[in-house]
Amino acid sequence: MAEEMTIGRLAKAAGVNVETIRYYQRRGLIEEPQKPLGGQRRYPESALNALAFVRRAQNLGFSLDEVKALMALTETSDCGAARVIAEQKRSVLASRIEELERMRKQLDTFVAACKRNKGKKPCPIVVALWKKEGDL
Question: Does residue 5 sit in helix, strand or coil?
């Protein structure tokens, strides 16, 4: 059996803060082991695996609620539910990418106007930011 760890060792091994582990426990993502009388809780290696799962899922943009839903599927062979969650996240990300592209294009326009200005008039970026949305 793999060596069990204290919460401090688990946090260090996972590259997270102890408070992060406690927060994940409150959210139901990581189980809190029983505390022996006069001793410290010991976390099994499965807790480290669960923390890695959470971090990888978060790196893909999943919320903690979505991570919890995905974790609940680890004991099943049904890929459909996980696929639905992933497709929904992909759709949200696609919308965010479109919005970021729109923002980048607007900033490109502002930067180009600023380069052409060369200090002759008030800065076009600042002027544009002072305008109301309908004025742009």
Answer: strand
Cβ neighbours of residue 90 closer than 8 Å, sequence gap 6 or more: none
Predicted confidence at residue 134, as pLDDT, reads 60
**Ranges under pLDDT 50 in the chain:** 1
Please tell me the distance from the alpha carbon of residue 18 to that of residue 28, in angstroms, as a whole number: 15
The residue assigned the tokens 């599927």 is: 73
Q: Nearest 5 degrees, angle CA 106-CA 112-CA 116?
A: 145
Residue 29: alpha-carbon gap to chain centroid: 14
pTM for this prediction: 0.77
Phi–psi pair at 61, nearest 5 degrees: 95, 5
